[in-house]
Amino acid sequence: MELKIAICDDDAAQRGYLGEIVSEWARRNRCPVRLQQYPDAKAFFFDYEEQKDFDILLLDVEMPEISGTELARRVRRENAAVQIIFITGYYEYFGEGFDVSALHYLIKPVDAGKLCPVLGRAVQNLAWRQRSVLISTAEGEIKVALADVLYVEAEKTHVNVHTVQGNYRTRMALGKFAAQLDDTFFKVHRSYVAGLRFVKKITRSDITMANGDVIPVSRGLYDEVHAALIRYL
Q: Are 16 and 41 in contact (CB under 8 A)?
């Protein structure tokens, strides 16, 4: 599978440097890559409007007019699978991409020894995001990508599957449905399983998801949920 990777940075030297690291990583791993570089978000969106098939984005956080985080937000609204890696010169920007489920943050100057493992994780995530579940609904069988599942909610003998495309209801026990998921999901309450990639905010009593929904956290589970989030990030 050929990967389409974009580097967006207003510093030409930085773009070239990152491009060299990505190209060398691709060569060593025998991974076909189509690499495209952009000096700003406007240039990126000019291409993106025509072909929205990027797999990995390496984004400078600080860019004129449209920041890297704003670029990521716009892309994430319609693409749950793309892997987003932020490049920044300041630690204080680390929280800005939380709502776009960024894969990782790297501090400038970027070290190849740190970027290459992150690219490997991105490839693994992309392969996983091809997985899906088949949900039996009143309208028939619906195939839903696991990458699109925000959270699952138990309701008596049914579960409601909340996704970025919409919600689906099926007759199944929560435990049975959860068995189809992996460690990017976590049971945060006896009636809720949350997709960690879509968690926007967590308190000791509830979780705010990327779509604005608020779901409860069981008393005593906060530390475990928080640890799971840290491992995922």
A: no
Cα angle 197, 201, 204; round to 5: 115
> Are residues 163 and 144 in contact, defined by beta-carbon separation less than 8 angstroms?
yes
Specify the amino acid at residue 178: A
Q: Tell me the whole-structure pTM to 2 decimals.
A: 0.61
What 135-138 contacts at long range (C-beta under 8 Å, 24+ apart), as own/partner pairs, is 135/161, 135/168, 135/170, 136/170, 136/171, 136/172, 137/168, 137/169, 137/170, 138/169
State the pLDDT at residue 78: 78
Position 182 scores a pLDDT of 81
Helix (H, G, I), strand (E, B) or coil at 27: helix
pLDDT band, residue 178 (cuts 50/70/90):
very high
- Which among 18, 78, 31 is positioned nearest to 54, based on CA atoms? 78
Cis-peptide, bond into residue 109, ω within 30° of zero: yes
Strand locations in the chain (E): 3-8, 33-38, 56-60, 83-88, 104-107, 132-137, 140-145, 149-155, 158-163, 167-171, 185-189, 192-195, 199-202, 206-209, 214-216
What pLDDT was estimated at residue 127?
77
Q: What is the dihedral sign for C-alpha 4, 76, 19, 120?
A: negative
